[in-house]
Amino acid sequence: LLTLPGVGPEKQYCLASAVNEWLNTEGQSLVIKAELSEKMGETKSQKKKQRFNSRGIFTPRPCHRLDYDTSGIVVVGLTRNALSLTSNLFEQKSIEKQYSALVWGHPREDKGTIKYAIGKIPSSNFNEFACYMENTCLVGNRFLKNITVDNFVDGSLRDAETDFVVTKRFTITSGSSVFKYSKIKLYPKTGRGHQLRLHCASIN
Asked: How far does Cα 104 stand from its chain's mean position?
């Protein structure tokens, strides 16, 4: 599932809409508890401020995103204040994210940091996320030569950083073929689109 709705009617059903369907039926008591808990903790000045700042009905939504093919934990803000406060924690990098990945090959180092900027390259149908590596660019699984910063969509290229630690290396033999794989832990310091996949691919 997409975390949030995409472009087009076929991409409207997503994690956010599925969660809200559930919260409006079986999960309704969770929203009620969250709202009550928040009201009990408010001071008089906060209650007064809340009355003046009331901006219509609030719909719970994710405080961050996961890429389409990534599984993991997604935090959903059940109240306006919870969404705001938790989203700020993600923006301030106060929340540490850790991912496990199974990758092809054996990295040369047991641990390291990958620092390649990520942005969008114009494509015929849509803009693709790409990793910029000094005149080379990784788009999908293709390495393109003679690419400069000017080839990226204006304002899309941003610094990206991922720490990695190899936890296991193993080799599978099938007949005369040998396949090398590694299990690694990934610690993204930034949250760019397709960052983990692109950074892993950038070091082969």
From this structure: 22
φ/ψ of 192, rounded to 5, equals -85, 160
Written as tens digits, the pLDDT of the chain (204 aa) is 899 998 888 889 999 999 999 999 999 999 989 889 888 876 555 555 555 455 678 999 999 988 887 888 999 999 999 999 999 998 888 988 899 999 999 999 999 999 999 999 887 777 889 999 877 888 877 788 888 888 899 999 999 999 999 999 999 999 999 999 999 999 999 888 889 999 999 988
Q: Where are the alpha helices (DSSP H) in the chain?
A: 15-23, 28-41, 44-52, 80-91, 195-202
| Phi, psi of 31, deg, nearest 5 | -65, -40
Residue identified by tokens 């700042």 is 53
State the chain's maximal CA–CA distance in angstroms: 74
The answer to whether residues 99 and 188 touch, using CB atoms and an 8 Å cutoff, is yes
